[in-house]
Amino acid sequence: MLSFNKLADISKVVCISAAISGIAACSSTPSTPLAGVKSHTLSNAVIYQTSSKEYPVLSSFVYNQAIAALPARFANGDVVVMDVDETVLDNSTYQKERESVGLGYSSQSWADWVKREEATLVPGVADFIDEVVKRNGKVALITNRDKTLDKHTWNNLLAQGLPLNTSNTCVVGRTSKDKEAVGQEGMINDKDLRRMQLTQGKIACSNTSNDTASTWAVPHAIIMQIGDNIEDVGGVTQESANVELLMPRVGTEIFILPNPMYGSW
Ligand SMILES: [Mg+2]
After folding, report:
1. I need a surface site. Which of 69, 78, 81, 223 has the fewest CB within 10 A?
2. What does the DSSP 8-state code read for residue 211?
3. PROSITE patterns from the xrefs (predicted)?
């Protein structure tokens, strides 16, 4: 099995992140032009995600491992928590467009991109979600996209043909309350409040009704967490995460995908 360290090594690829609000674009790091090949301005990180064979191999491998760790049938209330960007949706087109004109991340251009609803799927995720749904499972998509953009996230996911509906999937973006909660008891990172709300039956899904008849208005047990950022795991920060302590859970309840383009590192 591929070690966590290998994945961490990959995530270090040249890109320097601005670590902005859940997604950050890289500073453009020109690749070394090859003799006879037209030079370009895309970073190695974007080229890796859009053109390498290694990226789809790794992502699909992680998702295959996650499928192998799923229960044969989910118990009522069991849920997989997934991040969205570079976990379910691949935003390398956005990164490529920005870099190709010499620009980086901005909140306005990011919002415009999300509203286009054109992100594609991370390799392997469709098979994983198919298996979750087949096994009577539920998915909570806890994303640091702004909550006001949730309808576009939902539309984008449906447009990609995923077998999602309002009973089996909850989309919940970030609000100022998520950031303000950090530092309160049990709230280590800005997704912890939503994780707690999910376990208490109080999650405010944007794509479903929030009345008592909702399948989400009951307590849930988080059986798996999947993301491209260590903070997609509850109770840790980039700075505090202890890889050695996390490793026994990686491959069974924690799965981390490669994302060379940006992060909180
Ligand atoms: Mg992400």
Report:
1. 69
2. S
3. PROKAR_LIPOPROTEIN
Ligand 1 centre and the CA of 228: distance in Å?
Answer: 5
59-68 residue pLDDT tens: 999 999 999 9
CATH match of 4-256 with 1.20.140.150: no
Residues with C-beta atoms within 5 A of ion ligand 1:
83, 85-86, 228
**Chain centroid offset of residue 19 CA:** 15
Both structure tokens of 223: 């059986």
Residue 200 Cα to ligand 1 middle (Å): 24
Alpha helices (runs of H) in 70-106, residue ranges in sequence order: 92-100
Spell out the domain ranges in the chain.
4-256
pTM beyond 0.90: no
The C-alpha angle 198, 202, 208, rounded to 5 degrees, equals 90
pLDDT in tens, 71-84: 999 999 999 999 99
Ligand 1 center to 26 CA (angstroms): 14
Please, are residues 88 and 122 in contact by the beta-carbon 8 Å criterion?
yes
Ligand 1 centre distance from Cα of residue 85 (Å): 4
DSSP string, 113-144: HHHHT--EEPTTHHHHHHHHHHTT-EEEEEEE
Report which secondary-structure segment, H or E, holds 222.
Answer: strand 221-227
CA of residue 215 to ligand 1 center, whole Å = 25
Q: In angstroms, rounded to a whole number, what is the distance separating the alpha carbons of residues 95 and 261?
A: 8
